[in-house]
Every structure is written in C-alpha cells, then in structure tokens.
Design goal:
This protein has 188 residues and is mostly helical. Helices cover 66% and strands 0% of the residues. The chain contains four helices and no strands. Helix 1 (14-40) packs antiparallel against helix 4 (124-166). The longest helix is centred in the C-terminal third of the chain and has 43 residues, at 124-166. Keywords: Membrane, Transmembrane, Transmembrane helix.
C-alpha cells in the first residue's frame, strides 16, 4: 500500500489503538447509561423536563455518530462513504447545538431540589448525571482548545526560528542554514 499519498492509510501503534478503543468503550458505556437514565426518569424532572430528553438524544446521537464514523473508516470510497460523511457532518452540527441547549437546561436550574415534594424538583441521579457529563465534556473541550493553542504557538515559534536559520545570504546556497560556513568558490 502506498503511504505517501494524502488519503493513504496511516499505521497506528498498538498503544494508540488500545487508547482509542478504551476511550470509545468508555464513551459508549456513558452514552448507553445516558439513554437509560433519561428514559427511566423521563417524567421525574419537572423543574426542567428537557433534561431527561437531553440525555436520551445526546446518547443516541453520540452512538449513531460513533458508528457512522466507523463506517467511514471502513468504506473509503463510493456512495456509502459520501452519504455517511454528509450525515456525520450534519449529526456533529446537530450534536453541538443540542449540547449547547442541554448546557443551558442543566445549568439554569442548578441546584435543583431532589425531594419530590418541593417545587424545583429533579430526580437526583438524572440531574447529577446530566450535570457531570456536561461539565466533563466542557472541561475536555477547553482542554482540547488549550492544547491545540499551545501546539499552534509552538509550531509558530519553531517556524519563525527555523526561518531565521534558512534565510539565504550571499555566502549560502538557497535552503542552507545560516549557521553553515562560508560557501567555497566551487559551490557558488
């Protein structure tokens, strides 16, 4: 297989594969739990009745998105690949919007009462699960953007420092480093 082309398969190390599998299993179990908790306690959060629905839809869309992503990785061309790519893109957009809406539903009623006799009542497990999943997801988003920003900054710094070493002058050939000795008469 030609690995030099842009769409070529990239080999992963066993550690990378194991990490991806473990993260996907944990995420699938969390989303299955979200569906189960949301469906079980569908009418037990009158302070914000969208919270159980938020859990059900978030879990279902995440599981569907993950399975379609695996379909994309299996089928590399053809109509199935194009359709699943379009659908995954739309599903990610929907999931992002749903997550923003769910965040406002969960955080707007913090802290609810957990006793059914109270006015601002929400089932404790349902609310805390939604709160924890939403908070952890936001923390991961912030961490991802922070690490991405650090990586971009390091890349820019390395590019700028490499640029200063690669600037040609009258003593070097184009592409030579500025740390090199003067070019000999035969090199010019």
């Amino acid at each position: 297989m030609d690995t030099s082309s842009p769409g070529a398969f990239r080999a992963f190390s066993p550690v990378q594969i194991s990490t991806i599998v473990v993260i996907n299993i944990i995420w699938c179990m969390t989303m299955i739990a979200a569906i189960g908790i949301g469906a079980t306690h569908l009418n037990r959060c009158p302070v914000q009745f969208y919270i159980p629905i938020y859990l059900i839809v978030m879990g279902a869309s995440s599981l569907l998105s993950l399975s379609l992503t695996y379909t994309n990785n299996t089928w590399k061309e053809g109509a199935v690949y194009v359709l699943s790519t379009v659908f995954v893109s739309l599903l990610h957009l929907f999931s992002f919007c749903w997550f923003i809406a769910g965040t406002s539903w969960v955080y707007s009623v913090y802290p609810p009462n957990y006793l059914p006799e109270e006015d601002r009542y929400c089932h404790k497990t349902t609310y805390l699960f939604a709160f924890i999943v939403t908070t952890v997801t936001w923390a991961l988003v912030v961490l991802t953007f922070f690490c991405g920003g650090c990586f971009a900054l390091l890349t820019c710094c390395r590019t700028v420092s490499a640029r200063h070493r690669l600037i040609p002058n009258r003593h070097t050939l184009y592409g030579g480093t500025s740390d090199s000795q003067e070019a000999t008469a035969g090199d010019v």
